[in-house]
Amino acid sequence: MLCSPAFTNRACLALLLLSLLYFLGMDLLLYLRTQNYDVRPRTNNDTRQTGAAYHSPILCELDPICMVTVKALMLDHPNHFILSPLASLVDHLLGISHCWTWLSPNAISAFHVLVAVIGARFVTRSSLAYRRLGLLLFQVRAWLDNLDGHVARQRRNIEGERSDVGSIGYLVDGVADGLGCIALVVAVFFLLKRNTNRRAGYERLSASRKLIASSQRDNGGLSSKISFWNSPLYHVLLVGVHFLLTSAAWNRYISVYQDLLETDDRPPLVTKEQFYAKQTAVLRSPLFWAVALGWKMLNFHAVMDYMQLAIFLDRIWEYIRLVRWPAYVILLLLMFISELHYLHVYTYVQSIPPVTNVYTFLVNTLAAQ
């Protein structure tokens, strides 16, 4: 805050560049770890898998590439490579999971909702410094979100990043994340509403409002309709619905891929060695990595981070105008690719006979009609 705005912006861009280089390096290490070491259990007579057991140079729970899971591969870069290891480190140092028995994961979830509400209040302020302080609180919220998941997994002896779909903790965590997202979206709405004349995008909106106001005397109903399509509320609703769809799709593909690639329930006619080998082949395949990387960069937490970065750089209106419709197109394309890929690998892993293959079933159904 003591430096000039220009110097601060340059420092922020330099930090962003360093972060990108760090994430790229960690992605490369994760890829090499997946390709060269076991990612599924190995049996004594298993000759189909290649690779050796991975030995982490540090405590495994602090190493983001130690445990290869579907959720870890689809988790956004800041959470996977910074906040999650930091949460594990704090838990390791303080013994929260084993000693702080009075502190439940659900209580941590409830607390990070409160932090999000406080952060949202700062985001609505006119001062950029206060808004950046609010974004810092949102990062604290994200860290607490990692901490509650880590504590829950430690107490239930679950290794690595995994979603315990259907549990009470899973539902509470989802509701807490949703409330945190709502707090940010509402804060952005008030921020746009209070700063409609500051930048080129705001000036265009202001000019359109003046045009609407002048036409209101001639046709009040039509002007009211046009006013909504140019209002901050309309743009924020687009962003909010996109967040909702992204969250639902991301959690779905984590769940289905996790059930397929991390289960020990193999088909009756497939040996355990063959089953693990197929799961390993999928986890190492370029197509799965492309799908996982897509969700890593475009999941619920990632798109929230992009919006927070735009607020931090004081470019929120430009960002919203840029992504409001392309974001939907990219999301639908990623969902389409993910669905096709999942159907393909499901057929491969489960060894479904061709007569019951999904694609054959669809062709036969259409032919029958």
Question: Can you describe this structure?
Answer:
The protein has 369 residues and is mostly helical. It has one domain: Up-down Bundle (Four Helix Bundle (Hemerythrin (Met), subunit A)), CATH 1.20.120. It is built from 16 helices and no strands. Helix 3 crosses helix 6, helix 6 runs antiparallel to helix 7 (168-194) and helix 7 packs antiparallel against helix 10 (232-261). It starts with a helix and ends with a helix. It has helices at residues 5-36, 70-74, 77-94, 96-99, 105-123, 128-155, 168-194, 200-216, 220-229, 232-261, 272-284, 286-298, 300-312, 316-323, 326-350, 358-368. The chain crosses the membrane at residues 12-32, 110-130, 168-192, 287-313, 325-344. It holds the Pfam family CDP-OH_P_transf. One of its GO terms (molecular function) is phosphotransferase activity, for other substituted phosphate groups. This is Ceramide phosphoethanolamine synthase.
Instruction: List the helices and strands in order.
Output: HHHHHHHHHHHHHHHH
CATH superfamily: CDP-alcohol phosphotransferase transmembrane (TM) domain
Looking at the overall shape, the CATH architecture is Up-down Bundle
N-to-C span: 69 Å
The biggest sheet amounts to: none
Percent range for β-strand residues: under 5%
Uncertain residue ranges: 197-209, 221-226, 353-363
GO molecular function, one term: phosphotransferase activity, for other substituted phosphate groups
Organism: Dinoponera quadriceps
GO biological process, one term: phospholipid biosynthetic process
Keywords: Membrane, Transmembrane, Transmembrane helix
